[in-house]
Amino acid sequence: MNILLVNPPNVGRSIPEEEYGLTSIKRIFRGEPLGLETLAGNLLGHRVEILDLKVEPLSSLVPRLRSLTPDIVGITAMTCEANAALAIAATVKSTLPSATTVIGGGHASNDPAYFNQEQVDFICVGLGKLAFRELVDAIEQGRKEPGVPGIAQVVPGEALRFEPRVPTRRDLVEECPPRYDLVAKYRPEYVLSAGAGGGFRVGAVVSAYGCPYQCTFCSIENMTHGQYLLHEPEIVARDLRLLGGDVPVVRLVDANSFAKSRESRLLARHLAEQGLQRRFIADVRADTVVRTPSLLAEWAEIGLGFVVIGFESVDDQELRSVNKQSTVDTYREAIRILHELRIKIIGDFIISPQYTHAEFDALERFIEQEAIDLPIVTVMTPLPGTVLHRQMREEILVHDLDYYTLTNAVTPLRLPAEGFYTRYARLMTTNHAQAKL
Ligand code: B12
Ligand code: SF4
């Protein structure tokens, strides 16, 4: 069968970018759609193409549909891309009415019912590498009701029913690598760039899926039913080799890298033995750094150059309220260790729409005093499917998912909108201009 996998455009509304002069966010990270490359890896025997609409114009969709005439079109989507994914599915149906449309990814895994609409045929809830393959096989065999765990069949107007899929190592189908070759022509566009530091080509590799923690705002838990699944070191090494030596920076796109210290040490040693040093970026918790500084040191030796740390807040009470299971003291210690190891820090912070000038001041002070190399500040957003969403449901003022780019207040502000967004835009613009990566 012919299968087209589509990455939606870089969409979404952003009030600080549209109205308050913020321009730096979308420039910093551009990345490959590894989820789609991963699905493609387990579709041997089919003709598979990837259309990355974050690189190509949206107008390329219809010509590509006409030239490939796919039997199945798979679309990935985060929450802010949910409406874009629905629009793409509608275009597929109007261009090729017989094609089957499947939506998967972050939003589908957290709020599958959102896609229970007529232009969609199936929704993949959670990891899709094995589930999608099983669905494709069922479609090829002409089964009307595929009954694949983790795949919901759309019935508009009725409640969505499907058997959940709790993933195991089997779902990783480790023997089939991601199809990096399918995005080879886009590779020069996948860059990390910030401030005075210039840009680097960046590639993506997974070493772990899911996360053992449950921060209330985070949508990762539903991707894996709370499981934390690791790839074998040989698999990570294979994927690094396939990605190629001409991609100097590799982002481990795990939600939480190094959460199992023994396994992470074995991985570092295996990569060192194989001569697979790269400039790595990894998302690491601050308490992991404090608990196992020697692990970070081993990774620094094989090239760990940047860590992304979800600090979220610089106030212990706020950290407790989102179940972060960490403290500001731990943050300061982690930062000290990382500075000593010369590992650069990309710090994720979440500001609450309830912030006043005092909280903005405290955050600015922390970022400056602790010399965070690149702060990324987002606005607390109750993403559908998360605990935070259940807690704040009644307070949500903006329901249009186009605004769920994490840069807008979708719940009430305490400061006047102009004051809030002006400070937010200033915080990001100043820090990004000074960033050196
Ligand atoms: C790399 C990345 C990006 C990249 C590229 C992503 C891309 N598709 O092109 C870039 C830098 C562009 C990006 C941008 C943003 N991102 Co981002 N990103 C990630 C990150 C770190 C890794 C994603 C990844 O590659 N995972 C590895 C692959 C293998 O897994 P996967 O994509 O989940 O795919 C599997 C399943 O989901 C499923 N699946 C996925 N798609 C499909 C499709 C079908 C048909 C099927 C059957 C199955 C399926 O099967 C796959 C294989 O098992 C995640 C965090 C994380 N660790 O997940 C955040 C994450 C996805 N991003 C997030 C956010 C918020 C954003 C931004 C809004 C940030 C911002 N404020 O600018 C923007 C939005 C872009 C836009 N449209 O404007 C959130 C999404 C939360 C949500 N529910 O919406 C995440 C979860 C991080 C977080 N903070 O919580 N991002
Ligand atoms: S925010 Fe980070 S530590 Fe918390 S649940 Fe999500 S991935 Fe895990």
Structure description:
- The chain has 17 helices and 15 strands.
- The protein is α/β, with parallel strands linked by helices and 437 residues long.
- It has 2 domains: 2-167, 3-Layer(aba) Sandwich (Rossmann fold); 190-434, TIM Barrel (Alpha-Beta Barrel).
- The strands form 3 sheets. The chain has a 7-stranded mixed sheet.
- α3 (34-41) packs across α7 (129-140), α4 (61-68) packs across α5 and α10 packs parallel to α12.
- The longest helix has 18 residues, at 417-434.
- The N and C termini lie far apart (44 Å).
- Residues 7, 10-12, 25, 29-31, 33-35, 38-39, 54, 74-76, 78-81, 102-107, 110, 124, 127-129, 132, 204, 206, 218-219, 223, 253-255, 378, 383, 405-407 line the site of cobalamin (B12).
Note the gap between the termini: 44 Å
Assign an overall shape. Answer: globular
Largest sheet: 7 strands, mixed
Small-molecule binders: cobalamin, iron/sulfur cluster
Strand content: 15-25%
Q: What's the CATH class label of the largest domain?
A: Alpha Beta
Q: Total number of β-strand segments?
A: 15
> What's the CATH topology label of the largest domain?
TIM Barrel
Strand order within the widest beta sheet = 7-8-11-12-13-14-15
When the domains are counted, the total is: 2
The value of Rg in angstroms is 21 Å
Number of discrete helical segments: 17
- The secondary structure category is alpha/beta
Q: How confident is the prediction overall: mean pLDDT?
A: 95
Return the CATH architecture of the largest domain. Alpha-Beta Barrel
Low-confidence stretches: none
